[in-house]
Amino acid sequence: MIHAMLPSKINQVKVSQQTGCDVTIGIGRALLTSYIFPDMELEQQILSLPIRCIHSEEGCRWTAQNKLLQAHLSVCEFNVVSCPNRCSVKLLRRELPEHLQHDCVKRKLHCDHCGDEFTGEAYENHQGVCPEESMYCENKCGARMVRRLLDQHSVSECLKRKLPCRYCRKEFLYDTIQHHQQQCPRFPMQCPNRCGTPGITRETLMAHVKEGCSTATVLCPFKEAGCKHKCPKTAVGRHLEEATHTHLSLLGGLVNRQRLELRELRRAVEELSGSRDGTLLWKLTDFSQRLQEAKSRTSGSLELFSPAFYSHNYGYRLQVSAFPNGNGSGEGTHLSIYIRVLPGEYDGLLEWPFPYCVSFSLLDQSNPALTKPQHITETFSPDPTWKNFQRPRPGALGSVRGGCLDESMLGFGYPKFLSHEEMRKRNYIRDNAIFIKASIDVVQKILNS
Q: What are the GO BP annotations of this UniProt entry (predicted)?
């Protein structure tokens, strides 16, 4: 209700009417109720004023007289209302249909599968567990049935259900387990020799036939040596007794063949490890011990052999040898160094006799930062008439590392290359080792041609 006040009393403080309307005006005193009265004309003017909806900022476009506001708010889509299902949710009226249909936990719904009625929250819990819902088998066998029958199907009917193999206990699909049992390593098998041994499985059958079956036919234990005899396993012992001499003869032949194979393998390893650029750098370790061994010999001199090396690719095959305690005129006082030509793969393509200059060097191992190394170097050019540098006879060399040399093959070099006394004056021996370098001038010659 709209109230009006006499102009002369407008600065007064407070009025309290029997109708319960309190108005605070002025500065502290109560006005008499007779000074305030309802003003219906003013009320009609105010209620007839045009206004916008209180939710205009939220998007409502309603405009009308003030007196129609309450009626509009009862239908305004932007007005906040409570859910009619009393679910405690408050939301815009425009959102209410969506809420009632999908979100309200107290909405009433019927299950499409079993037909039972549920509230929204109970319906959500019911979904995914309804016993009458049609489901595909989770094993992807293709079968479809209501959920209440699914467990029984998975246990006893599904072709894709997993079952353990009764022999190896590994799990397989029902439709593949029979194929597995045709290959299962634990599947029980019968010995093909019908020996009657129990407990044989597919994985142990071959081992049983080869080693455990008493009736199996086996080869002689000396088959690698060449014995071709076959007999039951129980008769092997008698065969070994009767064929002792034959087996010894076969073993002797096998040893000879293996010796030749080892010789060829050793030669192949030396070929691969040797230099092919006309330079050999040979480190002799444990030099003091080898020198002492050479001095203590009562007959013959100790000769050490280097790995074989080539003058160049597809060139001459060569080898250096050294006598720590000397040889010939240098025996007992000097280090002797020689070179010899070995039978090579490409000898048929090369010029003979060997025509190139050879240089030997004993390397000074002094620190170059402290003193200039003084290497000892000797060089010679082969004389075409020397037998040492003629083409070697194929097969004349047994083992270059073992020293099994043909007596007709003699090295050429320096019996007095350097005295033991001179070797001790500088660092020719360091860390109990010496370095001997041999180089063939053919490399430089090829580059200049």
A: positive regulation of JNK cascade; regulation of apoptotic process; regulation of canonical NF-kappaB signal transduction; signal transduction
Flag whether 340 is in a domain.
Answer: yes
Q: What is the DSSP letter of 409?
A: -
Its sign, for the CA torsion 64, 70, 71, 76, is positive
Give phi and psi for 56, each to the nearest 5: -65, -35
Chain center to CA of 4: 95
The predicted-structure confidence for 279-337, as pLDDT tens digits, reads as follows 999 999 999 999 999 999 888 789 999 999 999 999 999 999 999 999 999 999 999 99
β-pairing, 30-31 with 14-16?
parallel
Does 132 fall in a domain?
no
* Residue 381: domain span: 274-448
Category of 177 on φ-ψ map: left (φ > 0), alpha (ψ -120 to 50) or beta:
alpha
**Sign (positive/negative) of CA torsion 156, 157, 159, 160?**
negative
Tell me which residues of the chain have a pLDDT lower than 50. Answer: 13-20, 24-29, 398-404, 407-408, 443-449
Q: Is residue 368 part of a domain?
A: yes
**Residue 282 forms beta bridges with which residues?**
436
